[in-house]
Amino acid sequence: MNAQVPVDWKAFLGRNDMVWNQLPESWDNAPFLGNGQLGTIFWLNQEGSLNFEVSRNDLYDHKVSTAKISSLYTRCRLPNGHFELTFDGGKKPEGNMRLDLWNAEAKGQVRSSGNVWDIRCFTHALKNVIVLEISGSGKPHLVWKPDAAKSTRGSAPPSIIPYPVQVFQKVEGCEVSVQEMPEDDLYLTAGQGSGQYATVWKGVEVNPHKTVYYISLGVSIPGKTAIKEAVQLVNQSAKEGVTNLEVTHRAWWHNYY
């Protein structure tokens, strides 16, 4: 006979939330948010901006390995890039953060030069979309900083050449930063087909003091559908709205617990 013990999961998990009384200042002491494929992690950098990493677990290189070049450099995870959220005032901001386990979201407050911003972020449980909500008295600035598309392992062979830099464009009302991965002997991808991954985002001003950013990362290796994938997700999510996304996101996590 199985014993059934009623548990108030909201209260139980709330006692185990991770809490920062000051903003985290390194990636290994920061909130992680993900759905098993898409994820983000954010912390305060030395310049006083919040770094929001954006990556997917299937973002791998597809170079051809040889006897002289290990798959550690040819089939490795690839870095994508991060957003930098900067605040008016010019001083290093202060604040706090909480990782809300029950609702699978991070929320906190940032204070700088008399301005106060409330921040909330979650990676949707069922959609490859990150929702970043910023409310406050000033105007924060969100800037995309792409990474070089190559192995991050040290002492990489000189034959490992980074792909061309990411290119910015606008597609269907969205901001896009696309990383092309050409099929070429130069990049050790001959016979592998060309690939592509693209970070896409859109900011929607709810009112003069609140903006919601919808962010996605499309991956097509090989293939050239990454932009389309991410743009569709971002535009669909922006149309659905943060409140509706929150309902389905929380329902999945509450059912999981």
Task: Report what the structure shows.
By secondary structure, this protein is α+β, with helices and mostly antiparallel strands. Helix content is 16%, strand content 39%. It is built from four helices and 14 strands. It has helices at 9-14, 71-74, 226-240, 242-256, and strands at 18-20, 32-34, 38-44, 50-56, 81-86, 94-100, 105-112, 115-123, 130-136, 141-146, 167-171, 174-181, 195-207, 210-220. A hairpin with a 4-residue loop joins strand 6 and strand 7 (105-112). The radius of gyration is 20 Å and the shape is globular. The two termini are 22 Å apart.
Short structural description:
16% of the residues lie in helices and 39% in strands.
The share of residues in helices is 10-25%
Helix and strand element order: HEEEEHEEEEEEEEEEHH
Strand order of the largest sheet: 1-6-7-8-9-14-13-12-11
Note poorly predicted spans: none
Q: Total number of β-strand segments?
A: 14
Strand content: 35-45%
Properties at a glance:
single chain; 257 residues; alpha+beta; 9-stranded antiparallel beta sheet; 4 helices; 16% helix; globular
Record the SSE blueprint.
Elements: H1 9-14, E1 18-20, E2 32-34, E3 38-44, E4 50-56, H2 71-74, E5 81-86, E6 94-100, E7 105-112, E8 115-123, E9 130-136, E10 141-146, E11 167-171, E12 174-181, E13 195-207, E14 210-220, H3 226-240, H4 242-256
Antiparallel strand pairs: 1-6, 2-3, 3-4, 4-5, 5-10, 6-7, 7-8, 8-9, 9-14, 11-12, 12-13, 13-14
